[in-house]
Amino acid sequence: MDEDGKNDVIAATIADAAADCGISLVASLPDGWITSLIRRFETDARFRHVAVNREESAIGLRSGAFFSGIGALALMGASGFLTCIYAITKINYTYQIPLLIGITLRGRPGDPAKFHQSNGLYLEPVIRAIDIPFVAIERGADIARLATAFRHSRVMARPVVVGFTREVLHGEA
Q1: 3-state class (DSSP) for residue 158
Q2: Which domain holds residue 132?
Q3: Which CATH number belongs to the domain containing residue 130 in this structure?
Q4: Helix or strand or coil: residue 139?
Q5: How many independent structural domains does the chain possess?
Q6: Measured distance CA(3)–CA(101) in Å, rounded
Q7: pLDDT at 2
C-alpha cells in the first residue's frame, strides 16, 4: 500500500473513533501531517467540517458547539495550538467548557522540518504549565484513546489535548 493509502486508512480509523464517541463537528486548520484526516472529515457524511482561518476560531466554534449539545473536535498543528493558550485559559477554563483538541506532535525526533523543532522543545512543557490533560497517540492501537480523552474532557469540564505522531498519521506505527 502506498503512503496515501496508509494515510487514508489511518484517517478512516480516526474518523470512526471520533464518530463512535459522539463527535459530529470538526473545525480544523491545515497541517501537512493531517491533510488526509481533514479530507476525510470533509467528505464523511457523519461530520460537519468547518475550515477556520485561525486556531482561536476553532476553539470558539468548538466551545459554542458544546452549548448546543454537539460533540466536536478542534484539529490543528502543534504551533497553532500554542497560539491558543489565552483563548483556552480564558474561555474554557473560566467557564468550564470541555474541549477536545487534536494536534500534530511536530518537532519530535524524526520530524525533518527544522522550523518545527521549537515545537518539540516547548509543546509539552506548555501543556504541563497550564495543567491540560495530554494523551499522546503514538501507535495505531492508541487511536481508541480518542474516546477516553473526549469523555474525560466532559467529566472534568475542561480541555484535553490528543497529540498524533507523524508515524501514526502516516500508518507507520
Answers
A1: coil
A2: 3-169
A3: 3.40.50.970
A4: coil
A5: 1
A6: 25
A7: 57
